[in-house]
Design goal:
Elements lengths: L1 E2 L2 E13 L5 E13 L1 E6 L4 E6 L10 H12 L6 E7 L9 H16 L6 H11 L3 H6 L3 E4 L4 E4 L7 E7 L6 H8 L14 H4 L7 H4 L5 H7 L1 H12 L4 E4 L6 E6 L13 E6 L1
Parallel strand pairs: 5-6
Antiparallel strand pairs: 1-4, 2-3, 3-7, 4-6, 7-8, 9-11, 9-12, 10-11
Helix pairs in contact: 1-2, 1-3, 2-3, 8-9
Length: 276
């Protein structure tokens, strides 16, 4: 049985403050994007795992697919051994959620293949044990996210009238490093001078450039000016809105479909244009 995990972009990302449990409260909109990889599961006498496509670290116990299997195996002793193969096509360390999607889709795939009868809510609870943005990929619909990113409210946001260009320069951004740059310097916002991302995305997209921000951009752009250069190029080409996704380093631009732009990027950059 085969499943096809897709990635996401963040529309805005505000880090509200650090919590007592060490995590951060945030708000963002997760929006699914049709860049996909593949996970195949075959029942086998011995647990096996292999990877093709983009080279990644963590081919063993640290991979989200294997973690998802062991997570279910703890509660479902009848879960048989399997051979899992992951074909990787979403860049890692890009803020696109590829690893999180792999884990969440593996949970769904195992649930379906072996008739575990887990509800959507139960799958989301398991996914949260894998990572803060993993529950989103169980729903896989545009969502306003708060808390650690696990409190999800589906939104009717529809970008199908636009095309989205995603650029990844091959720079791996550590999420832990990115959060560390904000620790101690961020004050909780006052409600009288603050619009939520949920409010901003309901406004015309022409207002997003000035109001819809990603808090990670400032420290990331400071350390890696070439990432800021990507955003500048996308705006210069006529993007209605452009932002870094997550903690980076992928940057996306949202364009009118009629815009026949031409942008030059180095050959080793990952460049994808998506139309829905």
């Amino acid at each position: 049985m085969v499943s096809f995990p897709n990635c996401k972009i963040n529309l805005g990302l505000n880090i509200i403050g650090k919590r007592s449990d060490g995590y951060h409260d945030l708000e963002t909109v997760f929006y699914p994007i049709r860049i996909k990889e593949a996970v195949e599961i075959i029942e086998k006498e011995k647990l096996e795992f292999s990877i093709s496509g983009l080279a990644i670290a963590g081919q063993g116990e640290n991979n989200f697919c294997i973690k998802a299997y062991h997570l279910l195996k703890k509660d479902f002793s009848q879960l048989p051994s399997v051979q899992m193969h992951l074909h990787k096509a979403i860049p890692i360390g890009a803020g696109l959620g590829g690893g999180s999607a792999d884990g969440a889709f593996t949970l769904k795939l195992l649930n379906q293949k072996f008739d575990l009868s887990l509800s959507e809510k139960q799958l989301m609870d398991y996914a949260l044990q894998l990572g803060s943005d993993c529950p989103f990929f169980i729903l896989n619909q545009p969502c306003f996210a708060t808390g650690r990113g696990e409190i999800l409210t589906q939104t009717n946001l529809d970008l199908s009238k636009f095309k989205i260009v995603i650029i990844h320069p091959g720079i791996h951004i550590s999420t832990a490093w990115a959060f560390l740059q904000l620790s101690g310097s961020r004050q909780r916002r006052e409600p009288d001078n603050y619009k939520t991302i949920k409010e901003i995305i309901q406004q015309p997209m022409s207002t997003w450039k000035e109001e819809l921000k990603n808090d990670f951009e400032e420290p990331v752009f400071k350390k890696y000016p070439e990432i800021k250069n990507i955003k500048d190029k996308l705006y210069n080409a006529g993007a209605v809105y452009s932002s870094m996704s997550g903690s980076g380093s992928a940057v996306y631009g949202i364009f009118e479909k009629s815009n026949q732009f031409s942008i030059s990027f180095p050959k080793d950059y990952f460049v994808k244009e998506i139309e829905r």
